[in-house]
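In the laboratory, one determines a bound structure by crystallizing the protein with its ligand and collecting diffraction data. In a computational setting the workflow is compressed into a single prediction: the sequence and the ligand go in, and a structural description comes out. We illustrate the idea with adenosine-5'-diphosphate.
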Amino acid sequence: MFDLTTRDIKYLSGVGPQRASVLNKELGIFSFHDLLYYFPYKYVDRSRIYRIREIDGAMPYIQLKGEILGFETAGEGRQRRLIAHFSDGTGIVDLIWFQGIKYLIGKYKVHQEYIVFGKPTVFNGRINIAHPDIDLASELKLSAMGLQPYYNTTEKMKRSLLNSHAIEKMMKSLVGQLNEPLPETLSPALLAEHHLMPLTDALMNIHFPSGPDVLRKAEYRLKFEELFYVQLNILRYAKDRQRKYRGYVFEKVGDIFNGFYSRNLPFELTNAQKRVLKEIRRDLGAGRQMNRLLQGDVGSGKTLVALMSMLIALDNGYQACMMAPTEILANQHYETIRELLYGMDVRVELLTGSIKGKRREAILSGLLTGDVQILIGTHAVIEDTVNFASLGLVVIDEQHRFGVAQRARLWTKSVQPPHILVMTATPIPRTLAMTLYGDLDVSVIDELPPGRKPIATIHQFDSHRVSLYCSVRKQIDEGRQVYIVYPLIKESEKIDLKNLEEGYLHICEEFPDCRVCKVHGKMKPAEKDAQMQLFVSGEAQIMVATTVIEVGVNVPNASVMIIENAERFGLSQLHQLRGRVGRGADQSYCILVTGYKLAEDTRKRLEIMVRTNDGFEIAEADLKLRGPGDLEGTQQSGIAFDLKIADIARDGQLLQYVREVAQTIVDKDPNASLPENEILWRQLKALRKTNVNWAAIS
Ligand code: ADP
Ligand code: MG
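The predicted complex, in structure-token form:
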């Protein structure tokens, strides 16, 4: 069968090679099919005609019917414009154009009946519509207009006259050529059971809906399908892996774990820590490989949970390994864990890029014999030269700095893939986690250890520096330490940002008796580590830094986090930065410094930060404000970007629902062989082929 939709877009009438190349470059549209799946971002009701006297300043697009009373030109140069006075008998509207003036005067006639369409603005008591769409009333069939689709376009497209209207016309011509239905992409059983519109109807109606009800049904069908295949893909991989690898079984909790629990554990576990440990223990004993994402706000005590999980591995005769994204963090984990295990007969080693020569060799051979039971390190631990006797569990700290490919390399380190525990302090809303890491089970530590004082967050304007420095001075006099964070290292001349270098000099002048260290992303790692070390050891009272300090550094004595140009940071980043303080028993502060002029979004972000310390609440708010594309962690997976119609922030419920649908199918048809699902498996295969990100899921 010849499939029309595979045809090159340049052959669509009204396109041609030049426009085709713009569509290729700007929107990635190469075929009829690609265009058909370029969905409108909104619809405007064109079935209704408004009266001029009904117009108020807050209206979206509206439609008027009337005649032009006369033309007028005004302004000079770039301000030159054509004004047409348009009336429907209830009032007058000024139609305004800044381009094509000569052409327009020739085109539109006085005292003809027109339908005018556009967005009204009210200015000095006069109503304007700039660059309206105009049609002869006699030529426009209103009843047939229904909802008009609007398509996103780019600046480059507009220069080639490819505006939303032009896309709409192409789409009309494309849809007009579809004489027979497209091959269905969901099975008849799914369509029937979930009352879904057939594919072809859905596509027609998503572009040219005859009314709101039909539109809703079309949207539902397409969103359902999109989310369904995302989930089917993830769950299918998970199933394959489950069948391929049985996973080590850690049957018992033995002397090492119990000894630690009764003698070394310096405090009572929080209820959340207990619950999560139970979840992990169940996984480890279940006879399938664990893939668990452990979410918990900064300071919630994930390290301890990780350590106790590793001790279970040791109790069962296996080794464990923990990876951190930076050398400093690896060091910190090493120190912490050595301290926690004090007096116990467990061999822990640290392996980073800077550990070389004899020491390195000793560690490597200790790993091969099994003498080294816990290895802590950076990426260095996944190098080819590092081999274990029996690696049973891997803990990865701060997930988003570790790519999927790096996780996959762990597979090769032992006979069976080890159990994996991924820890992240960037809380991810549940819906997003399901899409991104659908094959990971999620545990949440949603409780801080007792006795922590919530960090007080304050929003302060730039101009109140004197009082700001007074507070800093007070904290330093009490022996505390202070972070000052800047968004960028070097800024373009245009935007007046205090850049880090300037800030550093300024702070040195303000606090001449203090030691100030400086850290930014362009430094050599050794230099950076040395500066960080000054702060960790307490020699420096103030650290001036860019966001490199975001991840993990633990300096309980630091009590103030000042974030300069806070308007330049996203919510989750602000929250991460704030988490650097509040680690000791004293009251800590986070001060968000901004200029006076703030965009609405920024104001909201700052309000949320001031209001709450709850990472999950912040993550949800972030998802709503920014959409999933910008969230940390999504870049790496790319999946959230590929969604054409579903929206993870808004369609969370549907996502949950289709996940269950997909799960049922995978469970009932583990070999992907049932005839009733043939369409589904074929479609999944096709999608994996065209979608790079889909194949990369671990
Ligand atoms: P995270 O890695 O989740 O940011 P950490 O594991 O670094 O947090 O823990 C933060 C601090 O809280 C550490 O100093 C740790 O010793 C302490 N801590 C962890 N669990 C508890 C607990 N149950 N009670 C008291 N303090 C705890
Ligand atoms: Mg940590």
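The chain has four domains: 1-45+159-180, 47-145, 265-445, 456-612. Keep in mind that any predicted model is a hypothesis to be tested, not a measurement.
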